[in-house]
User: What shape does this take?
Amino acid sequence: MIAKKINKLRHIVSNTITEKKTLNQLKNHSIPTKKMSNAFIAAKHQNNDVETIKIFKELNSYKQTLLSSNEIINYSIFNTQNRTVSEISKNASSRKRWCEFYYILSRALGAKNVLEIGTNLGVSGQYFLKAINENYGSQSLFDL
Assistant: This one.
């Protein structure tokens, strides 16, 4: 039991050291990788202005709606059990911190196109769409 805890702590420390080293290397490589590094740090440490916090609350409300949905998704075509939207959202959608990273990065890079191979409920996709919409004023699927 103690050995398991020591290994977990060693893993955390190792990842922290590696992460800092990698982020520093990215910052010194090129402008896009510097932006990626800064976006990661901003998402990780929640360094957001008031407007961005407001946007994140708005975008997160979609996931909250999914988490309370008891609508059934039929998986019979895959010979597996049906699941509720809530279960799928809880277990398979992107984590909030990653979605925020996608938004911050898309904004920082001025993305006008993003290829996301979405396989779920569109939680992370809406963060990309919001950033693209703000970058170029284009109409997102949610605005149609």
The chain has two domains: 1-47, 48-144. The radius of gyration is 18 Å.
